[in-house]
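Lab meeting, item 3. Inverse folding demo.
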């Protein structure tokens, strides 16, 4: 997996960012996030440390290739490294940093998505928190609880960082204000000790399922 990770990193370097205005058949993106920290007192021990996350993604747009059916394939590989603030210094339950993880290189997401008119679907290995139980403003903060509420992450086994699972997501966009989205995820994503490279794709009734539904409610404020 480390060889694959480094190979993909070298492959991504020449590509322009996928956020540019020009449409690209093959869009690549590389993001690095780092956290410096110092535990001054309390916790399990005191000291200074650093943790980092390399996030590499690649998307192939089949619509721009003119292939029948269209859609897009996406792959996302991550590498986490450094010291664990929660595991080695603080010992908190909720996990302070949203990139806290063991030293590992693994497949994070791999899925096919297609939008046909008002109907869309996605199938593959997918991060639940990218579509459900997410706050638009929460991503600006470091603490992991701003990403997904601990009532979910601590009581269930959701498909979230750092270990995702197989999923099937369907959506319907009636208009600009009314939409509905539903999904089924494997009920046991395992962990990176059991599945160190994130290559488990199975979905079975023995492990159960995680089912979600989302229907945003638009709020319009009248100003006179």
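The presenter then showed the designed sequence:
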């Amino acid at each position: 997996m480390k060889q694959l990770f480094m190979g993909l990193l070298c492959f991504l370097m020449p590509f322009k960012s996928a956020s540019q205005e020009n449409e690209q058949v093959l869009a690549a993106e590389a993001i690095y996030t780092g956290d410096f920290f110092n535990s001054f007192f309390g916790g399990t021990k005191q000291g200074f440390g650093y943790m980092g996350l390399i996030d590499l993604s690649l998307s192939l747009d089949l619509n721009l290739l003119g292939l029948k059916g269209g859609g897009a394939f996406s792959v996302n590989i991550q590498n986490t490294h450094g010291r664990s603030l929660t595991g080695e210094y603080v010992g908190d339950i909720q996990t302070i940093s949203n990139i806290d993880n063991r030293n590992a290189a693994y497949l994070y997401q791999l899925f096919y998505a297609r939008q046909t008119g008002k109907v869309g679907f996605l199938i593959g290995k997918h991060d639940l928190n990218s579509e459900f139980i997410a706050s638009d403003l929460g991503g600006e903060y470091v603490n992991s609880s701003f990403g997904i509420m601990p009532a979910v992450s601590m009581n269930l086994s959701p498909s979230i960082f750092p270990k995702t699972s197989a999923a099937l997501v369907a959506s319907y966009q009636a208009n600009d204000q009314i939409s509905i989205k539903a999904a089924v995820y494997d009920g046991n994503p395992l962990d990176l000790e059991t599945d160190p490279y994130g290559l488990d794709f199975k979905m079975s009734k023995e492990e159960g399922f995680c089912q979600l539904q989302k229907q945003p409610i638009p709020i319009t404020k009248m100003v006179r």
